[in-house]
Amino acid sequence: MYKSFSMELAGRTLTVDVGRVAKQANGAAFMHYGDTTVLSTATASDKPREGVDFFPLSVEFEEKMYSVGKIPGGFNKREGKASENSVLTARVIDRPMRPLFPKDYRNDVSLNNLVMSVDPECRPELVAMLGSAISTCISDIPFDGPCAMTQVGMVDGEFVVNPSQAVWDNGDLQLTVASTKQKVIMIEAGANIIPEAKMIEAIYMAHDINQTIIEFIEKIVAEVGKEKHTYESCAIPEELFAAIKEIVPPAEMEVAVFTDDKQTREANIKEITEKLEEAFADNEEWLAVLGEAIYQYQKKTVRKMILKDHKRPDGRALDQIRPLAAEVDIVPRVHGSAMFTRGQTQICNVCTLAPLSEAQKIDGLDENVKTKRYMHHYNFPSYSVGETKPSRGPGRREIGHGALAEKALMPVLPSEEEFPYAIRTVSETFESNGSTSMASTCSSCMSLMAAGVPIKSMVAGISCGLVTGETDDDYVLLTDIQGLEDFFGDMDFKVTGTTEGITAIQMDIKIHGLTRDIVEGAIARTREARLFIMDTCMKPAIAEPRKEVNAYAPKIETIQINPDKIGDVVGKSGKVINAIIEETGVKIDISDEGMVSVCGVDKDMIDKALKYIKTIVTDFEEGMILEGTVVSIKEFGAFIEFAPGKEGMVHISKIAKERVEHVEDYLTLGDKVKCKCLGKDKMGRISFSIKDAQ
C-alpha cells in the first residue's frame, strides 16, 4: 500500500514514499528532498552465509550521470567503477548502521542507494544516509534503530544545517553526525582549523536535529513498518566457552595477550589454538566455531584487563603514546619524503610536485568538472601485517584512509597563487598495528615540509579508544590504540589538527552510541596527544617547511597577462607556444583568466620562456630596447625575431651608422642583435633600428 510522509527539515521538505516502488525489497524508501531524488532499499538473504564469522553487510551509493543531465564520458558511455565520492559516502552510511544490527546475525544484507536526480541545494549523500536508515527500519530485517544523520557546514562562523553543495565545498566545516534516540553513533568531519569547543557545539546541534528526524522515522515505522523476522543465531555455545576455560584458564590467556609485540602475541594465540584443536578433535561442531570462540575469549580478557584493572596489553598507561620516531629525506631523488613510526605502526610518505595542469579532474554529480589540486593516496600491502595476499589495488578501506589524511591537511595548504603546484602525497604502510591513517597524516605533513611546500601549520593525528562497562559512567578512554585494542574495544576516535584546532575527525564505534562526556573526553585526549607528537617527535625531525623546493622538483614561475593576449602567446594551432616549449624544454599552462605558469627544472630556461612571453604580450613602444635573432634577410633590410611569433623589421638604412650596400655584409642568419623601437613609420608599421641601440 502506497503511503507518503513529509517533514520540514532545515527549511526544505523531506518526503518519503513507501510502497510506491521496489516492492520486492525487504524495505524501500523513495526519498525526495527539494528536487533531489534517491531510491534507498534494504534487502537481506533468507539464511546466514556459511563459513563467515562476521556480519556480511554491503552498502552502495550509485551515482547516475542522468541525475545531473550528463552522459558518461569514455567509449562505453555508461557508469563504471564507483567514484571515490561513492565509496566514501557508502562508508559513512555503513559505519553508524553496522553496530545496530544483531551481533550474531550472519545473513547477507545489502543497502543500495540509487541517485536519480540531484538538486545542488540538497546533497544526495545526506538523502541516501536518511534513506538507508528509513528503508532498514521499515523492513523486516532485525535492526536496533531508528538512527538519523545531519550534516553541518559553517560560513563566517555561523553553522548551516544540511548545507547546499556550494556551501559544503567552500565553507569552513563539513560535519556529518549520526545518532540514535539516546546517543551519538558516528562523527565524520573536515574542518578549517576549528577550535575543539566549537566542534563539540556543532556535533550536539546536529544530534538535537537528529532527534526530530528520529521522531519522523518512528511515525513511518508505526504505520508501515514490517515485523522483524526471526533468524538463525550464530552465537558461540556457552558450553564451548566453559570447556575452553577449563583448558586455558583466564590467567593463561592474560599472559598470552599481555605483550607489546604483535608477533609474540600471535604466536601465543597460535599455541593456544593448537592445544584446543587437539582437545576438541572429536567435536566437529565446536571445531567449526573454535576460531570465533578464541577471538571472543581474547576480547573478554583484554576488555576486563583494561576496564577493571586499567592494564593495557602492552603495559602502557591509559594516556601513554607508544614510542615515536620520525625522519625526513629517507628516499633520494623524490621531491620530498618522510617516515613516521609509532610503536609497530610505520608509514613512509613521498611527496610529488607538478604543474597545476596535472591536478585531478573529477566528473561527478556536479554542474562542472571539478579539479583536485591536492591528492593523498594510501597503500596497505599485506606484508605490513605479515600476510601474503596479492595486491588487487586500493579497496574501500584504503580509499577511506587516504581521504581522511587528505582532509586533515587541506586547511594548511598554501593557495595556488602562493604555491602554483599540483601536489600528490603517497603513504606506503611499512608496518601496521593500529591507526595507520593517523601515522599517515603525520608523515604526510613532514613530507610536504621536506618538499618545500609552505604549509601554514604543522598537523598531527592520533586515535582514542574506548572500553565500556555495564553503565554509561563505567568506561575507560585509551590514547593511541594499537590493533588489539581497536579489534576488542568499542571505539576508534581519530582526530587530526594543528595547535589551534581540528582539521578532521573520523569516529567509528561498535556499541550503540557515546555519551557527551565520552565525546568531549576523547576530543580533549586527542588534543593533548597530537601536541605531544608534534613537540617531541615531528618538530625535531623538521620544524618548518623548507624555503625552496627540492633540487629534483620542477620549478614554477607565474605571471599574469591580459586575457586578450592569450591568443598571441598560443599562436595559430599552438605554433607560438609550442616553439617556446621546444626551445626551452619547459611546460606552460595558461588559465582563462590569463595566469601563465611556466614549469621546468632548469631555472635559466624558465627565465628564458618567461622573457619570451613577456615580449609577446608587450606592445612595441618608441624607445624600447629589445634583443632578438636575425631570422630573415632581404635586399631592403632584415627581420628580427624577439620571441616566437613576435618579429620586427630593421631597414637597411638603420643597420649601421655608415652606409650599408648589402645587408649580408653586416648581418647573418642567427645573429643576436639589440634593436631600438622607432615607433610607426609613414605606412603605420613598427620599425626598428640596430644602429640607434648601440
Walk me through what this model shows.
The chain has 694 residues and is an alpha+beta fold. It folds into five domains: 3-157 and 194-224, GHMP Kinase, N-terminal domain (Ribosomal Protein S5, domain 2, 2-Layer Sandwich); 238-309, Arc Repressor Mutant, subunit A (Orthogonal Bundle); 324-468 and 516-541, 2-Layer Sandwich (Ribosomal Protein S5, domain 2), CATH 3.30.230.70; 555-617, K Homology domain, type 1 (Ribosomal Protein S8, Chain: A, domain 1); 625-693, Nucleic acid-binding proteins (OB fold (Dihydrolipoamide Acetyltransferase, E2P)), CATH 2.40.50.140. Helices cover 31% and strands 30% of the residues. The chain is built from 16 helices and 29 strands. The strands form six sheets. Strands 8-7-9-10-21-20-18-19 form an eight-stranded antiparallel beta sheet, with helices on both faces. A hairpin with a 2-residue loop joins strand 25 (625-634) and strand 26 (637-643). Helix 1 (84-97) runs parallel beside helix 2 (124-138). The N and C termini lie far apart (95 Å). The model has no long low-confidence stretch (mean pLDDT 93).
Features:
single chain, 694 residues, alpha+beta, Ribosomal Protein S5, domain 2, Arc Repressor Mutant, subunit A, 6-stranded mixed β-sheet, 16 helices, magnesium, Polyribonucleotide nucleotidyltransferase, KH_dom_type_1_sf, KH_dom_type_1
